Design the sequence.
């Protein structure tokens, strides 16, 4: 074996594990759930979530979805809060490198499969790409109606007035809808869906997106999907329409005024800067390349 | 015949058993539009079971409950699909619980509580929902500046008013009330009864009120039903039953009211 000698180029697939860690029967079970989810956009399909070699809350749902659909020819990108180099992203990327040996990339345009936590890349996705979201709480009504039998009934009968009660309450208390992430959306005019904790800034990107969007919740054992070019509508009132965040600043590194900015504290004297949360997008702009 | 000449609710032979025990046995009565019917009887006589059976909350073992809808004629409420039954329950019906906390969302403001049914019916204009909520709070004699307060900060009487407003916002034609005043102190009770009497008259509400308080029946109800052991033992016009009770149990009931 010369696996160790090629260490410099990439992490090489390790022996002893099935391709993409999960056994083939499990992958098949998850694929069936995914197909059903695609057939009923926005509907939460239960699946037999497996124990994964990392804790719940770290993306076990997204990892299982990715493991079920990844092929040897895929190019994988993993992001966490928009960045390719944070702990969650680095570990999940290495997990798939070691269990599949597939190529990885930080470039959104080069990836065929993107697993994400909390962001959608700024660079528009294209047909043929798949984006997998890690979801902590798949049920958008969970905080409003604790009984799961009741929330299932509400989905079944499309009784979603309760969600607007929550939005009403926000406006009455704060003067505006206070949700800034995990902002509830209607899929194809039928199912209310949690978009996972992405900022509401990213909600419009989901609407009629050419890429396939898959959502996996490991602890809650649910998979749901938004097929390409599906209508995704953020809930709002006629007199309080949906709005995304805006910043007074441009990115301190690349000067973008269009992207989602993170505030970074630079010292303990009040110094701070605003930079793109999408590291790939920011880097590309600084290199002078598109976008 | 016009709509008013026909009963809004027809209850035929409704029976409910809990195991071997019969909770209510072969109950039948009609309720007419705008009529207030009181159901009285001691604890355990089946009053609440009856109310649950006729309000589609508890399927009876036998018998039928027919409701005259606005547009689709008479329907058997247990033949309806779950979806239309739930729609009926939040548009044409109201249900006032004895404990307001059961009927209210205690973690959202008064305005959201009143507006919930409107939003469930597809109202998506914040300003209109708020105006409607304010107008109903005024009608149930609540202060308008409490609209953004949580019901958890309200007194029992105010909670009960809020629960009534929340039910009436869709202008139902039939309201079920389970002991609506019994958790309140006497002076608050009097004001609430006065309010209920005004509202039922103004809105031409048909109503079934379960109560063990004969004064409530006297004040609000046109007709009353006296229950004992799951059966109707006497029924008639309220004044007639209370002033000239025929059945021994009713006589006992009337004579055991304390006079201060």
Sequence:
């Amino acid at each position: 074996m010369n696996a160790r000698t090629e260490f410099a180029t990439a992490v090489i697939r390790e022996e002893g594990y099935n391709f993409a860690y999960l056994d083939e029967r499990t992958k098949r079970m998850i694929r069936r759930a995914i197909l059903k989810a695609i057939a009923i956009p926005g509907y939460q399909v239960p699946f037999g979530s497996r124990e994964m070699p990392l804790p719940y809350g770290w993306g076990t749902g997204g990892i299982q979805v990715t493991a079920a659909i990844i092929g040897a020819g895929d190019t994988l990108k993993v992001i966490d809060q928009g960045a390719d180099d944070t702990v969650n992203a680095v570990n999940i990327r290495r997990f798939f490198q070691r269990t599949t040996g597939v190529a990885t990339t930080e470039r959104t345009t080069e990836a065929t499969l993107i697993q994400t936590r909390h962001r959608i890349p700024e660079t528009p996705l294209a047909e043929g790409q798949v984006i997998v979201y890690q979801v902590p709480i798949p049920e958008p009504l969970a905080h409003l109606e604790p009984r799961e039998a009741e929330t299932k009934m509400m989905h079944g009968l499309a009784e979603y007035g309760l969600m607007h009660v929550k939005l009403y309450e926000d406006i009455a208390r704060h003067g505006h809808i206070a949700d800034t992430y995990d902002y509830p959306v209607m899929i194809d005019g039928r199912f209310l869906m949690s978009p996972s904790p992405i900022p509401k800034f990213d909600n419009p990107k989901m609407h009629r997106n050419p890429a396939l969007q898959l959502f996996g919740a490991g602890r809650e054992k649910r998979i749901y999907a938004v097929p390409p070019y599906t209508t995704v509508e953020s809930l709002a009132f006629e007199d309080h329409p949906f709005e995304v965040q805006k910043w007074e600043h441009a990115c301190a590194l690349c000067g973008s005024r269009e992207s989602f900015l993170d505030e970074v504290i630079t010292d303990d004297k009040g110094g701070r800067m605003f930079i793109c949360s999408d590291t790939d997008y920011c880097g590309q702009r600084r290199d002078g390349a598109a976008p | 015949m016009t709509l008013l000449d026909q009963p809004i609710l027809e209850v035929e032979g409704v029976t409910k058993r809990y195991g071997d025990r019969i909770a209510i046995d072969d109950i039948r009565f009609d309720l007419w539009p705008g009529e207030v019917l009181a159901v009285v009887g001691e604890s355990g006589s089946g009053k609440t079971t009856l109310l649950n059976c006729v309000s589609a909350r508890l399927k009876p073992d036998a018998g039928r409950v027919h409701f005259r809808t606005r547009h689709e004629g008479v329907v058997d409420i247990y033949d309806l699909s779950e979806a239309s039954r739930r729609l009926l329950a939040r548009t044409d019906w109201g249900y006032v619980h004895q404990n307001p906390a059961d009927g209210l969302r205690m973690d959202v403001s008064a305005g959201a509580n009143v507006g919930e049914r409107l939003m469930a019916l597809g109202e998506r204009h914040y300003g209109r929902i708020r105006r409607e909520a304010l107008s109903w709070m005024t009608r149930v004699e609540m202060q308008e500046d409490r609209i953004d307060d949580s019901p958890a900060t309200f007194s029992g009487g105010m909670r009960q008013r809020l629960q009534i407003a929340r039910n009436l916002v869709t202008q139902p034609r039939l309201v079920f009330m389970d002991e609506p005043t019994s958790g309140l102190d006497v002076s608050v009770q009097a004001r609430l009864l006065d309010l209920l009497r005004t509202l039922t008259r103004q809105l031409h509400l048909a109503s079934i009120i379960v109560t063990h308080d004969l004064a409530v029946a006297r004040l609000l109800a046109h007709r009353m039903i006296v229950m004992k052991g799951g059966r109707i033992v006497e029924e008639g016009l309220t004044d007639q039953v209370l002033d000239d009770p025929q059945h021994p149990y009713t006589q006992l009931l009337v004579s055991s009211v304390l006079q201060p």
